[in-house]
Amino acid sequence: MREKEFIEIIKNTLNSNYIGDDCAYLKDLGIVISQDNLVEDVHFSLKYSNPYQLGWKSAMVNISDICASGAEPKYLTVGLSLPASVDNDFVENFYKGLKSASKNIEIVGGDITGSDKVFISFAAIGKTEGRKISSRKNAKSGYKIIVSGQHGSSGAGLRLLVQGKKGPEKFIKAHLMPYAQIDFSKQIAEKVKEDYAMMDTSDGLMDSLSQIAEASGVNLEVDFDKIPYDKDLEKFSDFKDLILYGGEDYQIVAVVPEYIAKNHTVIGQVKTGSGVSIIQNNTVQNFSKYDIEKKIFNHFGK
Amino acid sequence: MREKEFIEIIKNTLNSNYIGDDCAYLKDLGIVISQDNLVEDVHFSLKYSNPYQLGWKSAMVNISDICASGAEPKYLTVGLSLPASVDNDFVENFYKGLKSASKNIEIVGGDITGSDKVFISFAAIGKTEGRKISSRKNAKSGYKIIVSGQHGSSGAGLRLLVQGKKGPEKFIKAHLMPYAQIDFSKQIAEKVKEDYAMMDTSDGLMDSLSQIAEASGVNLEVDFDKIPYDKDLEKFSDFKDLILYGGEDYQIVAVVPEYIAKNHTVIGQVKTGSGVSIIQNNTVQNFSKYDIEKKIFNHFGK
């Protein structure tokens, strides 16, 4: 909640058109840029991740932001602030993870400083040539909602890690070493002619749906049974919450015209109205932006 | 020292040509990009800076990186990680400072998260069209060494702040609200035809000279009496150290052919050899890279 309040203050102070999407689209330069901060014990824990996994995931999180814009991921810069306890092996393995995750993407510099906790910042740059760039305010009534991959696995993995469990390993791996949806993004951005909306599910599927609905002034209606997920999730009593709110799957949600949707997994459609409607067993549940925010992990822990 | 060791590890792991200068030059996109992390109690203290000043300086530090490359500063992204103690006023005033410092430069997004100390990360983008881009490895024997502005004032200001003194205010202001040398950089980068070296003096004049000498495989010979400084610095017993090692003046040192140097303040020249030579009263003092590193503020505090 506080994060959103701060963003309002920033928007008002800067009076800028660029604040809103995860990437800023710099048309004169033909690029998009995104920036992320990853803070120890807020965004990751060295109890769960080794340095290689942390490097991998950090890169993927930022590549995913570029994918969500529709641009081609090209370059990453990395700023690392490290406490005195961190040794050479940490740096080497972190960069090995980073490099493995960054196929066809060049790491071109950054910064390295001291700090009392591990603090990682990234800037990612994507090239827009030949791509149509998305914005979350571009969902239109009649468009279809499509998704990449499976949802909820990463949230389940985090739960297992916190509980000190070793498996199922596939969920833990989904959490520690996600994949950015480079191909899915490319297929859409190279083909679509109209304005469209696209986000990654970094903060959960419902968050992405809610942000798109809010920014576009529409209602997103989703058929729960069409959302792809790993059936082993059903062993968790609250598996539906994991699927809808779990976060960090880094899948893509796109809201696109029907001719784009037809080769993909369609989970719903855009209607006039507001908020997100979830249909299951012929029952519709309506969620306002506030209903959804209440449920979502708040970066400030309140 | 540790920072430099980490950079070697990163270079070896990535096997990249882009690590070395403060900015990465992405020729295919016609841009340079730089990234910086600023960590509370490492790079700044909220005891000395108010949020407006912190915003101002953070922006200038990053704009200065772009100026050092010779590119035209165009865009900034900002990642802010804030502890729970930070309030709306902090965010508003930080962004006001940021905006005041960023004339003709657009702030285009970023990230906002929680943390236990204030962490600020920046990415800055410059446009290279019509400019020749510098590299610290391009100093050549026979080139002249030129500088912008005055040196040592910021270091003096920091000393006064740490000692709890209120003045001379000009030194404190030089430390808290420096100016990036946008015009100086433009004059050189638009006019020079040959490869040349340029850095800002973020870590002190001697550090910049030493880095250029080392990367270029040359000796930089500087006439101390030609270095411009505020005469009131002489009230500090070690004013020569403040001028040479003080840091955070964000002036520019450029090593350029004579026809570029002639309209600027020339402080020395490039010779064959290595390290930095300081001439004063007909006496030459030679400093190796190691001599200089020993004196320089180490970001890790050791």
Structure characterization notes:
- The structure is a homodimer of 302-residue chains.
- With 302 residues, chain A is of the alpha+beta class.
- The first copy, chain A, has helices at residues 2-14, 51-69, 88-101, 153-162, 169-176, 182-191, 205-216, 239-245, 258-261, 289-295, and strands at 24-26, 31-39, 72-82, 106-114, 119-127, 144-147, 197-200, 219-223, 252-256, 265-271, 276-280, 283-287.
- Chain A folds into two domains: 22-127, PurM-like, N-terminal domain (60s Ribosomal Protein L30, Chain: A, 2-Layer Sandwich), CATH 3.30.1330.10; 136-295, Phosphoribosyl-aminoimidazole Synthetase, Chain A, domain 2 (Alpha-Beta Complex).
- In chain A, 34% of the residues lie in helices and 25% in strands.
- A seven-stranded mixed beta sheet of chain A has the order 7-9-6-10-8-11-12.
- The interface between A and B is large, with 65 and 65 residues.
Topology of helices and strands:
The structure is a homodimer of 302-residue chains.
Chain A: H1 2-14, E1 24-26, E2 31-39, H2 51-69, E3 72-82, H3 88-101, E4 106-114, E5 119-127, E6 144-147, H4 153-162, H5 169-176, H6 182-191, E7 197-200, H7 205-216, E8 219-223, H8 239-245, E9 252-256, H9 258-261, E10 265-271, E11 276-280, E12 283-287, H10 289-295
Helix pairs in contact in A: 2-3, 2-6, 4-5
